[in-house]
Design goal:
This protein has 10 helices and 11 strands. It is of the alpha/beta class.
Length: about 290
């Protein structure tokens, strides 16, 4: 069964930008769009917030109005709406499990601050089993103009980055865009030089050729699967977050991976994804992997 693209909407400017992005992506991929609002009754002493029935009606009307605006722009798009009753994190994580991706909005104040992730956004990204895309308020369709790339971070071996690469190639294929695959590397500490690692480096001709070979091997199956997608291989010395952000100016979407397993302190976003989310001025997709 084909899963929809799901957009979380709460009436804010950033969530409406996320909805517009999700609708365009659904049209490109030929998928349905599900628009959801995570809601529970919130009484307020200072203002007349209405009773549960009244507040629920306001939520439904707002959700239906947002969906109508989408169908007016995309008449052939299959759009459904759902009010999800419960705590925001739990309901959005559950919605993501049934979706091809979950798209959320996030406030931003220029390229220095980037995304402002509240506790809900951070927890949803850390817990979701499907990719989560963050879209800033003010994001426009013109930002997806021809010539701008889908940038994806590749780390570790081919299996470590397979989920992020798949997402990037699928997105690029749907848009006719170029994939820029970025692999950052740093000099390892002296104690990391074991006889086995030295042998591998010697066979590859040094550190940088070794990193280029590793990136090429990770990309090979995706090049074969998507032969029409143009690929730029980008290997650069530096921290992964810094290297990814250095190319963000020509990016229409940044794709980064996140380990899906929980640690002793709970689920975490990861340092690379955290840095990109807080400083990139383009939409960012965080893709979980094992």
């Amino acid at each position: 069964m084909t899963r929809p693209i799901t957009a979380g909407v709460d009436g804010s400017e950033e969530s409406l930008a996320a909805l517009a992005w999700a609708a365009r992506e659904a049209v490109r991929r030929g998928l349905a769009l599900r628009v959801v609002h995570a809601w529970r009754f919130q009484p307020h002493d200072a203002i007349d917030a209405g009773d549960p029935d009244t507040q629920g009606q306001w939520v439904r009307e707002g959700l239906e109005g947002a969906a109508r605006a989408v169908t007016e722009r995309h008449p052939g798009l299959d759009v459904t709406t759902d009010v999800l009753h419960g705590a925001p994190v739990e309901t959005l994580v559950a919605a993501a499990a049934d979706a091809e991706m979950l798209v959320l909005g996030s406030r931003g104040h220029g390229t220095v601050v980037g995304f402002l992730l509240g506790s809900v956004g951070q927890q949803v990204i850390a817990e979701a089993k499907s990719p989560v895309v963050l879209v800033r308020a003010g994001d426009q369709a013109s930002a997806e103009a021809a010539g701008r790339e889908i940038v994806v971070g590749q780390q570790g071996d081919a299996d470590d980055s397979a989920a992020a690469l798949r997402f990037a190639f699928e997105t690029a294929a749907a848009r006719g865009a170029t994939v820029r695959a970025v692999r950052a590397w740093t000099l390892p500490p002296l104690f990391a030089y074991s006889p086995a690692s030295l042998k591998l480096l010697d066979e590859a001709g040094g550190l940088e050729p070794y990193e280029k070979k590793a990136l090429g091997e990770a990309l090979r199956p995706w090049r074969e699967r998507f032969p029409d997608v143009h690929v730029v291989e980008h290997v650069e010395m530096g921290s992964a977050g810094q290297v990814l952000l250095s190319v963000a100016g020509r990016t229409q979407l940044m794709v980064v991976g996140r380990r899906a397993h929980r640690t002793a302190v709970g689920a975490r976003i990861g340092s690379v994804a955290h840095g990109v989310l807080h400083h990139a001025d383009c939409p960012v997709a965080v893709v979980p992997h094992d």
